[in-house]
Amino acid sequence: xxxxxxxxxxxxxxxxxxxxxxxxxxxxxxxxxxxxxxxxxxxxxxxxxxxxxxxxxxxxxxxxxxxxxxxxxxxxxxxxxxxxxxxxxxxxxxxxxxxxxxxxxxxxxxxxxxxxxxxxxxxxxxxxxxxxxxxxxxxxxxxxxxxxxxxxxxxxxxxxxxxxxxxxxxxxxxxxxxxxxxxxxxxxxxxxxxxxxxxxxxxxxxxxxxxxxxxxxxxxxxxxxxxxxxxxxxxxxxxxxxxxxxxxxxxxxxxxxxxxxxxxxxxxxxxxxxxxxxxxxxxxxxxxxxxxxxxxxxxxxxxxxxxxxxxxxxxxxxxxxxxxxxxxxxxxxxxxxxxxxxxxxxxxxxxxxxxxxxxxxxxxxxxxxxxxxxxxxxxxxxxxxxxxxxxxxxxxxxxxxxxxxxxxxxxxxxxxxxxxxxxxxxxxxxxxxxxxxxxxxxxxxxxxxxxxxxxxxxxxxxxxxxxxxxxxxxxxxxxxxxxxxxxxxxxxxxxxxxxxxxxxxxxxxxxxxxxxxxxxxxxxxxxxxxxxxxxxxxxxxxxxxxxxxxxxxxxxxxxxxxxxxxxxxxxxxxxxxxxxxxxxxxxxxxxxxxxxxxxxxxxxxxxxxxxxxxxxxxxxxxxxxxxxxxxxxxxxxxxxxxxxxxxxxxxxxxxxxxxxxxxxxxxxxxxxxxxxxxxxxxxxxxxxxxxxxxxxxxxxxxxxxxxxxxxxxxxxxxxxxxxxxxxxxxxxxxxxxxxxxxxxx
Length: 745
Hints:
The chain is mainly beta. Helices cover about 10% and strands about 30% of the residues. The chain is built from five helices and 40 strands. Keywords: Calcium, Cell adhesion, Cell membrane, Cleavage on pair of basic residues, Glycoprotein, Membrane, Metal-binding, Repeat, Signal, Transmembrane, Transmembrane helix.
């Protein structure tokens, strides 16, 4: 590529920067005329582009396209835009470029048209009272939107007003406010309000003002003082944790500050430390309180010396003053005091099993009111197991029943009871004493073998061991360690068995010689470590199994039944016996039920001339069902042989009309072969009986109860064909149903 040589630009086409003042009011205003050296016969067309022409802000500048004159069409604001850069173009009438575009820069000249502005309306500062002159407090500052390179933005600061004292000054250039003289005292004047001014043109131009508020911070230059020298108060005896009264002080320092907050001290008059004094943070008063109960009988008056000072030490510049002191006199009022158990709780020990009526202790209280004659009485306030009996006058505690261990009412072997002591004053006062009774363990239980059975391999050395354990209901030290040994009454057991201790609760049983398979009962002697020790002979059932190569039992069924399942031989025998007993009882119950059904069937159909059930009675009353026990005597159905025809038949006690006995009992036919004839004869006898009510008489339907113990009757219509019914049982009903048995059996 070949670089083009720079072309020479005509002098008339180079436009220097143009300056124009802001806020120019003569509009339109000619700024400059541009001209191209390349004049054409038809003339040159001029144009400009850029901000203020075809870019925002629009319409500020324009150009005469034939003469090249550039005009200002609006007032300018330097604070918005301090210069404009435009591009000028020269074209012939055909639109062909005659000159390269040139730059046209318009500079806006500043005018002092903006006042200074403080950054905030109110400035806040703090300085401690008594500060030395020259101590700077704060700095106020302002800004000016005019050109900072001109005097239009050159600011100067001053204090217009601060009161007559003139305690502060300001740096005219930086705006820093400092103390001007000593004597700042917060107690005299705590806040200073200053009016400050900022002016441009180095103090001769436009001005603005703001407020500067200066707070004096308090220092501890004033000690607290009591409002009076003596204070009097009164408090009841035996009162603790209560406020007795207040002492009042005054402090000139700032309320709520550490320089104002008081601290009180009791210097004299309270050697036992019965009183305390604290500061109320809201009022700065001293609050005197009782921290230990006072006894009027011991001391009825106190005279306390109290001092006060601030939490924060006084400043060295504060004037010296003596220590503030006050005298506080406290009088103790006498009141009725509650009885006192000097030993609370009272701890005693009692052997378990102590018989009823045994005195175990005397638990009494004392009355601190020595100036009053009072009588104390006692009562059991809490005795959860009802084990104790208390004498209300002497306070002697006796056992009411045998103290047992273990018990749900014991906590770690201790039984807790509460005793109430009450005086006879008006109103009476009481006190509660805690009686803690330790139930001492007695060695009254021998250790029990657990479990009492096991399985082991009958080969010595490999698998021929069994881990034995024991439990004891007694607590330490009357339990473990346990001692296991073969019964001394059977010394021959030592030839085949041995027992070695494993730990304090277990031992290891081992075989000494190879034993055949089977069940062995070994008598053992177990002994605990109590005082005195308890021992017991117990049987251990050992199942010796066939040994494998690794010393385990090959008989898996035996191992599972005795070892794996954890069921001893005795437990297994109990389970088998219970099962057999249940089976026998179930069989007896079934046989009894079957015999009762057969007897009922035979009894209902038994021929007897004395059977009152063949008489037609008043059947139009439904009765109360199976729960109706008032209608008929069921013993006639169960034992018909006990009732004869001469006996008076029972009457229904719930019949609406008296149903008398038929005139003559209807006798059974000699050969009742036809059931239909038999029933018809009965109906005819009933219809001709004048003692029964007519057929349209209102009937009585009693409540039959919530259920029936009889079997359901649904089986009556469960089949529609004779082939589905079994009539063989008719043979058991006697000769009266023999014909039916022949027809359907």
